[in-house]
Amino acid sequence: MAGAGWRGARGGRATDCCRREGRGRGAGRLTSLPPRGSEEVGDLAGGRAAAATWRSRIPTAAAWSSQPLTPGVFRVKMGSQAVKPLRVFLLMMRVWRRHLICQRGQQPFLTCIRAVGACPLVFAWVRWAVDLNSFACQSLKYNHPQTEVRNEKADEFLALLKEWAVLCEKYVHQDVDSNLAGSEDQEDADTLDKDEFVVQKLIGIRYDGTGRKKGVYFKVQWEGYGPEEDTWEPIDNLSDCPLKIREFVQEGRKRKILPLPGDVDVICGGPPCQGISGFNRFRNRDEPLKDEKNKQMVTFMDIVAYLKPKYVLMENVVDILKFADGYLGKYALSCLVAMKYQARLGMMVAGCYGLPQFRMRVFLWGALSSMVLPKYPLPTYDVVVRGGAPNAFSQCMVAYDETQRPSLKKALLLGDAFSDLPKVENHQPNDVMEYGGSPKTEFQRYIRLGRKDMLDWSFGEEAGPDEGKLLDHQPLRLNNDDYERVKQIPVKKGANFRDLKGVKVGANNVVEWDPEVERVYLSSGKPLVPDYAMSFIKGKSLKPFGRLWWDETVPTVVTRAEPHNQVILHPTQARVLTIRENARLQGFPDYYRLFGPIKEKYIQVGNAVAVPVARALGYCLGQAYLGESDGSQPLYQLPASFTSVGRTAVQANAVSVGTPAGEVVEQ
Q1: What's the domain range around 127?
Q2: Which of 123, 508, 552, 599 shows the greatest Cβ crowding within 10 Å of its Cβ?
Q3: C-alpha span between 477 and 429 (Å, rounded)
Q4: 200 and 270 Cβ atoms separated by less than 8 Å
């Protein structure tokens, strides 16, 4: 029985060590690991002490009020700016929704179009991914097959990193052979009793911070049982199997399944702050960080404090600069400065980088004092303005000065993005189909390119699955009532519920019922015009059941597709925009496939950072890594070649975009 382990049902035996006594798989004799300490895994092993140290240096709210932000893109410089070589790992994280970790190779280009960008002399691909949403994990794993995808919370991920450091110190860095030598002898001497089970292999690791037994769990593969019988067992219950644990930890460290402090070059993330949402009636304006819904920003900074990367990039909504006098934005800046990082804060508009949506977001750069602080890329496209920056942070907009006259490309519109896509019905069951036509614009030719043409090497030299097919061109299926309503919305620019029978626009642009028209009802007996549409924003809104048009843009791609209080109807079809149409508005290439129910796919697209924005930021990151920018100025003008990367195959003639020929709305 050498090399086996054990499994307990009513009792069990560990062939690595000795006998297990317990009831059920989760029971057994407990054996504690050695106590953790800084002497075992470095200065950041405990995590809490380090966090307490940098938190003690964060200025108070009173200090913030007495020290207003400096004009221009916010920047704090600390120390020299000598450039060091790029480390082996590039960690990219979105703390609540998405975490991406990339590893450097030897190829001559740096590209991860959703995360890093394109810059000469360095190459990166997604190495790890962590996401709370299981469907997002499926999408990440499918599109990044070399990635270690983890489905867990950010705080549990951080706890696991700390425990992993302890395990690596015990089983990798120390000489454990002498301590475990007697285990194999004991293993051969004992025989299995009835109802004893054997551990085949440990195949996974996670941290459970909510269960009855908090701590590290291993996923156990049992000898003689199929994958459906694999179970998660707490590490204490496997204390009699150190050989199996050592085997897993040594192999895991060799494969780099988790990063240790010193492994990481860059941490990127977008910690959500749902506590500041306008939909939250109980927002804590005095102390926003005491709201549990805002704690993810604290977790994000704790991860930075533990792994201590060279660079940090945080993305968030503009509300962090609006709510409570910008409390959360100032907190994030202060955290980085307290950890001795240089810091910059800027607001970027997605439409300025080649998309038909506005979408303003906050991006915070951080860099160690020994590194060059990355700049922000200046716009390359004109944009249809749909809102402004908070007054107190207006100087943090990433834009050209009013006195400058840059040569920008023409703003992209909806017709540029998806006028080539085939007509689909309200109910479209197929998530893979043929295009059925040729692209009509340069954007459409570009977005249809394959992985290699876009410098995406997630599949190595292989072309990757599904290329050349149209994926996820499915709309959210409207219920029968909403479908009847949508079919009666006119096919014209600006159409919405106000064009339905029985609605009249009165004084001050407020809708009211037309007294001369009897109220119209649907086949279900419900009214054609719902009461919520009439009362939305006190009757002044144009959004309910609003129809988009080809020469327009959208304010922001969101995570839902219901037409009740947003303009999301297709210009000429009786449906909402499909997942693929929304994905194009975010800049996702057509080969990028999503998983999960249709509503979950909309969520994944709406939560993402716009691809062209990420790519432009990645280019500036590459410039800083290579020492090709000095970091003294906050803004960087992208070279002319940047906007044409990968577009040699998409030389297109100018095409006038209007309503596609033959498109007729369903009546």
Answers
A1: 73-151+260-277+284-410+612-637
A2: 123
A3: 10
A4: no
Q: Reduced to 3 states, what is the DSSP secondary structure of residue 160?
A: helix
Long-range contacts formed by 144-148: CB under 8 A, 24+ apart: 144/458, 145/458, 145/459, 146/458, 148/101, 148/257, 148/258
Q: Of 18, 102, 273, 335, which is the active-site residue?
A: 273
3-state secondary structure of 218: strand
Please count the other Cβ atoms lying within 10 Å of the Cβ belonging to residue 479: 11
Task: List, in sequence order, every beta strand (DSSP E) within 270-398.
Answer: 311-317, 341-349, 360-368, 376-377
Contact at 8 Å (CB) between 548 and 570?
yes
448 falls within a domain: no
Distance of CA 199 to the CA centre of its chain: 36
Cβ atoms of residues 90 and 75 within 8 Å: no
Q: In residues, how long is the chain?
A: 667
Q: What pLDDT score was predicted for residue 589?
A: 96
SS3 435: coil
- Asked if 406 and 264 sit in the same domain, the reply is yes
Q: Please name which of 313, 327, 392, 370 lies closest in space to residue 58, comparing C-alpha atoms.
A: 327
- As a whole number of angstroms, the distance between CA 303 and CA 297 comes to 10
pLDDT at 75: 36
358 and 556 Cβ atoms separated by less than 8 Å: yes
Quick one: 180 exposed, middle or buried, by C-beta within 10 A (0-12, 13-18, 19+)?
middle
Angstrom CA distances, 611 to 328, 353, 605, 616, stand at 25, 9, 11, 9
Residue at 659: amino acid letter = T
Please count the structural domains in the chain.
2
Are 123 and 223 in a shared domain? Answer: no
Q: Give the DSSP letter string of 513-533.
A: E-TTSPPPB-TTSSBSS-HHH
Residues in the chain, pLDDT under 70: 1-126, 175-195, 275-286, 288, 643-667
Residues with Cβ < 8 Å from 248, sequence gap 6 or more? 201, 202, 203, 205, 218
pLDDT of 364-395, one tens digit each? 999 999 999 999 999 999 998 877 788 889 88
Q: For this structure, is 119 an active site residue?
A: no
Q: Are residues 305 and 331 in the same domain?
A: yes
| R_g over Cα of the chain | 28
Contacts of 267 (CB under 8 A, 6+ apart): 91, 92, 93, 303, 304, 307, 309, 311, 312, 313
Q: Are strands 341-349 and 74-76 parallel, antiparallel or unpaired?
A: antiparallel
**Which residues have a Cβ under 8 Å from the Cβ of 344 and sit 6 or more positions away?**
73, 74, 75, 364, 365, 366, 373, 374, 375, 376, 634
- H, E, C per residue of 59-113: CCHHHHHHCCCCCCCEEECCCCCCCCCCCCEEEEECCCCCEEEEEECCCCEEEEC
Q: Is 279 exposed, middle or buried (0-12, 13-18, 19+ CB in 10 A)?
A: exposed
In this structure, are 295 and 385 located in the same domain? yes
Reading the block at residue 632, the tokens are 């003294």
Assigned token pair, 272:
């959500």
Assigned token pair, 507: 């004084």
Strand spans (E) along 140-214:
148-150, 196-197, 199-208
| E-state strands within 422-570 | 432-433, 470-471, 503-505, 511-513, 546-547, 567-569
Supply the pLDDT for residue 98. Answer: 36
